[in-house]
Design brief:
mainly alpha; two-stranded parallel ribbon; Pectate Lyase C-like; 307 residues; single chain; elongated
């Protein structure tokens, strides 16, 4: 409303100024030549013609600008309608029991996410919900081998971890999912701030993945490849790291995370995992508490758990 009022006032002022210059201002534009009535009339007529031409050009420019703005609005409405239609069709494919149709829906959502940034949070939540529904963790999960990329759950996860970096305003929820055998190695997988509480990542290929500030409470990493995985400020309280692929997890990685005395660490090689820095780090966390961890402080009298 304020913008429209401002435009109206501006147009009124422009018209007033234009009329003033056209009928009265022209008499002083070229006063040097105002020596005779005929010369004066000729000059005034020429000046008025020039002013009218300039005014017509300005009006035409404003008209073109208004037309372009209206065209942009029309195109935006048309584009939004297209996105809605594509989104609806993708959801229908995703709900199918046919894996080929599911994959079609997943890749259609990926395209929507990249073409329409405002829709990225909704698309990310739909894909995460698909993974939670179709791959929940069980109490005795199978230790699966590498899963082919054509698997819909695998495809959905790879799209999520490679989505554009934008502020989505919500945490990616992969809590309680079975991500065993997933291959997200060497693709700069982004799981920063993700909620993976209770997730199972048995035999997962995680090389180079970013779990910074992620919730990994009670997550299981049976024989997972943890090479160069970023665990900075990740909550690994209760996480089972005892059987990660040997040599892929280092003490330094754990020191950057937020372990507790319920974190199960590898026991071999002993000379590495008996590092006193781990004991000191966990004691420091116990003393200050972990604001991200349910229950606050993790103080207890037990020793560090090692597999």
């Amino acid at each position: 409303m304020r913008k429209e009022t401002g435009v109206a006032i501006g147009v009124a002022l422009f018209i007033s100024l234009f009329v003033y210059v056209l009928f009265w201002g022209v008499w002083g534009i070229d006063s040097v030549h105002n020596k005779s009535g005929q010369a004066m009339a000729t000059i005034v007529s020429g000046n008025r013609a020039a002013i009218v031409a300039v005014g017509a050009g300005i009006v035409a420019a404003f008209g073109a600008l208004a037309t372009a703005r209206a065209a942009r609005k029309t195109w935006a409405v048309h584009r939004d309608g297209q996105v809605t239609d594509r989104y609806t069709a993708a959801i229908e494919h995703l709900a199918s029991d046919n894996q080929v149709q599911q994959l079609g829906g997943i890749f259609a959502l990926e395209r929507i996410m990249r073409d329409s940034p405002p829709d990225q949070p909704a698309v990310a939540e739909v894909l995460a919900s698909f993974i939670r529904k179709h791959s929940p963790a069980s109490s005795n999960p199978p230790l699966r081998v590498k899963i082919p990329v054509k698997d819909p759950v695998h495809a959905a996860l790879r799209i999520l971890v490679q989505r554009p970096l934008r502020d989505e305003g919500r945490q990616l929820n992969l809590r309680g999912t079975n991500l065993s055998g997933m291959d997200i190695a060497n693709i700069n997988a982004n799981l920063k701030n993700a909620d993976l509480m209770g997730a199972v990542l048995a035999h997962a290929h995680l090389k180079g993945a970013n779990f910074e500030s992620a919730n990994l409470i009670n997550a299981k990493f049976y024989h997972a490849d943890m090479t160069n995985v970023i665990l900075t400020d990740a909550d690994i309280s209760g996480a089972d790291l005892s059987d990660v692929r040997r040599g892929t997890l280092t003490v330094d990685q754990v020191l950057r995370a937020r372990p507790s005395r319920t974190t199960v660490l590898p026991k071999e090689p002993a000379e590495e995992w008996l590092d006193q820095r781990l004991e000191t780090h966990i004691k420091d966390l116990d003393r200050v508490g972990n604001p991200k961890r349910p229950g606050g402080r993790g103080e207890c009298g037990c020793e560090i758990l090692r597999g």
